[in-house]
Amino acid sequence: MKNSPGRRAKTREEVAEFIKAGEATRWKAGQSGNVSGRPAVATLSRAIRQVLSESVPGANGTTYAEAIARALAVKAAHGDVRAAAELADRAEGKPTQSIDLAVSQLAQRFDAMSRDELLRYAETGQLPEGMNDEQDQTAR
Length: 140
What we know:
Layout: H1 12-25, H2 43-53, H3 64-77, H4 81-92, H5 101-112, H6 115-124, H7 131-139
Helix pairs in contact: 3-4, 5-7
C-alpha cells in the first residue's frame, strides 16, 4: 500500500524549510500582537454598570445592584442552592481549578529544544534522550 503524497514522511530539508518559514511570522520577544490593547470596558458592560448603579424608583435610594443582591440573599436563605452558589462566587470568588501541569511542562521542554532536536523529533517521533524520564518524574 503506497502512502499518498500528503502522508509521506517529510525529509530533513522539508522540515527545516517548514521551521524556517514559521520563524518569519512568529512574534518577536516583547512584541505584542494586540498593539492597541484590550478595550478598558466593553459598551455593554459600561451600560450594565450604569443601570446597576441607578436607584430603583420608590425604593428609598436602593440601587438595582443592592436590590438584586438582597433578592439573591433571600432566595439563598430559603434553600435556593443556585442563589447561594452565585452569592458565594461573587463574594469569595470562584474556586480555583486545577490544570494539567504535565502538558505545560512538556510544552516548556519543546520550547527549550534545539533546532537539531526538533528536526530529529519531526523525523523520528522520538523525544531527545532523558526527556521522557523527566516527564515521567513530574507526572508522579
